[in-house]
From TrEMBL:
Lineage: Bacteria, Pseudomonadati, Pseudomonadota, Alphaproteobacteria, Sphingomonadales
UniProt xrefs under PANTHER family: BCDNA.GH08860 (PTHR10788:SF106), TREHALOSE-6-PHOSPHATE SYNTHASE (PTHR10788)
Subunit composition and interactions: Homotetramer.
Gene Ontology biological process terms in this record: trehalose biosynthetic process
Top-rank lineage group of the source organism: Bacteria
Enzyme Commission number(s): 2.4.1.15
Record's signal peptide: none
Enzyme class: transferase
Pfam families listed in its UniProt record: Glyco_transf_20
Entry keyword set: Glycosyltransferase, Transferase
Listed name of the protein: Trehalose-6-phosphate synthase
Length: 468
């Protein structure tokens, strides 16, 4: 069977046995794929060295080989903090107001992608399948082709793909998109992002789009397709039924003393709509004074990308909003917003989700959003909570039975909170059942199998397909 070479910005090294539950769903799925396909996971170690050497640190853990390189401070500044997180991330989340166009960032991005290509090239054998992840590494495939790699290569983008009108604001956008056409498969989270990409190919490059999503470019066929990512359903639901989850659930329940709880869990990122969420909750408290002392919002928001100014600003903004709302509605024994800037082990998180009557997932723009799926998977089916979900999350296309909202409309979200808190058990169960089936049936294993199957492409024999 072909080996799988997974390439991403960072590598998530498997934890020692017994601690496996601490990993995210994506890491778990890729690790299991790598074990099945005897693969290698290549990426940046997260470490800094004074001068780039290209030294590969190879390790073997839990049946998976990882290969990592260290980067220099200038690489991290220009490629990671710069082009990836100050240019592409905001642009891909429709925030051209936050997008920085700095030529040094672009050069750093190309330099680091070339360093990735140089370092991973010797690891690739002729029958390997190469699977590249995310916006950090869009041109990597074309750099590997230039080094003679003829293997089948795929790219999966975890973020949205922006509308053409926004993308053309990026200097050298033509070069960036053209470089992506070196892959055999280009995967997106949803049809919406896929269609934006195809629109660009059609309008800006004049490429005809085949009925089946194939695009022809320079005599090669490229499959562009949506592969909606899911959670590791089995691992997550096992975790949700563990003693650790139950203990976290019971402690949290006891601490709210009979009040109803809403929960948000998000990396501290402006794309997640946290400011609007807090404002909506404040509006709910203002409009429903009889409930103001009976409802708590627990917001877990581990900081991320703290070296980038826009992330420092969102953090300050949220501290101000929390202080304002808590100042107005708290009393000596109660605060309405519990705003927590740290992460928790996954099993505890599952217990927290189950303890909350309402899951608030209100990003302004999100490739998919796994928290929405985790909230559903963690519920007690006999007495499930209600999911309020932004219409701008990729997951909204699948999770039709959630209460969908426009997160920009403070009034609409506030009214929906009221509706969710009052929803009768029968309706909660009916909605939950449909949502649960969808989260279970399109989990991360399904996602990975679909992608790898597409990556095998025409070359796959019935036997290799079977072995997936
Ligand atoms: C990108 C795309 C896409 C959060 N707090 C804690 C914690 N988390 C975990 C959640 C969830 C994950 O982080 C966040 O995933 P999301 O999908 O919600 O969002 P991004 O981080 O922005 O991910 C997104 C995803 O890639 C996958 O393709 O869905 O659209 O932006 O799993 O549970 N985990 C733990 N403690 C925490 O406190 N253990």
């Amino acid at each position: 069977m072909s080996r799988l070479i997974v390439i991403s910005n960072r590598v998530s090294v498997p934890k020692a046995a017994g601690a496996a539950g601490a990993q995210g769903g994506l890491a778990v799925a890729l690790n299991s794929a790598l074990r099945e396909h005897r693969g290698i996971w290549f990426g940046w170690s997260g470490q800094e060295v004074e001068e780039f050497t290209g030294h590969l640190d190879m390790q073997r853990n839990q049946g998976v080989t990882t290969a990592t390189i260290d980067l220099e401070p200038q690489d991290i500044e220009e490629y990671y903090n710069g082009y990836a997180n100050r240019t592409l991330w905001p642009l891909f989340h429709y925030r051209i107001d936050l997008t920085e166009y700095d030529r040094n960032f672009g050069e750093g991005y190309e330099r680091v992608n070339a360093r990735f290509a140089d370092s991973v090239r010797p690891l690739i054998e002729p029958d390997d399948l190469v699977w590249v992840h995310d916006y950090h590494l869009l041109p990597l495939g074309s750099l590997l082709r230039a080094k003679g790699v003829k293997n089948r290569m795929g790219l999966f983008l975890h973020t949205p793909w922006p509308p053409t009108r926004l993308l053309v604001s990026l200097p050298f956008h033509e070069r960036l998109v053209e470089s992506m056409l070196a892959y055999n498969v280009i995967g997106f989270q949803t049809e919406e992002w896929l269609n934006s990409f195809l629109h660009y190919l059609e309008k800006e490059m004049g490429l005809p789009i085949g009925e089946d999503g194939h695009v022809e470019y320079q005599g090669r066929k490229i499959l562009c397709k949506a592969f909606p990512i899911g959670i590791d359903f089995k691992e997550f639901t096992e975790g949700a039924n563990s003693d650790e989850a139950k203990e976290a659930h019971d402690k949290l329940k006891a601490s709210v003393r009979g009040r109803k709880m809403l929960i948000g869990v998000d990396r501290l990122d402006y794309s997640k709509g946290l400011g609007e969420r807090f404002e909506s909750f404040g509006r709910f408290l203002a409009d429903n004074p009889e409930q103001a002392s009976q409802v708590v919002l627990l917001q877990i928001a581990p900081p991320s990308r703290g070296d980038v100014a826009s992330y420092q600003q969102i953090r300050e903004d949220l501290e101000r909003k929390t202080g304002h709302i808590n100042g107005a509605y708290a009393d000596v024994a109660f605060v309405p917003i519990r705003y927590v800037n740290r992460g928790y082990p996954r099993r505890q998180l599952a217990g927290f989700y189950r303890a909350a009557e309402v899951g608030l997932v209100t990003p302004l723009r999100d490739g998919m959003n796994l928290v929405a799926k985790e909230y559903i998977a963690a519920q007690d089916p006999e007495d499930p909570g209600v999911l309020i979900l932004s219409q701008f999350a990729g997951s909204a296309l699948q999770l039709k039975d959630a209460l969908q909202v426009n997160p920009h409309s403070i009034e609409h979200v506030s009214e929906t909170i009221k509706l969710a808190l009052a929803m009768p058990l029968e309706e909660r169960r009916r909605r939950h059942e449909a949502l649960y089936d969808s989260v279970r049936d399109t989990d991360v294993v399904y996602w990975r199998e679909e992608f790898v199957r597409a990556l095998f492409g025409e070359e796959a024999t019935p036997d290799t397909r079977e072995s997936l």
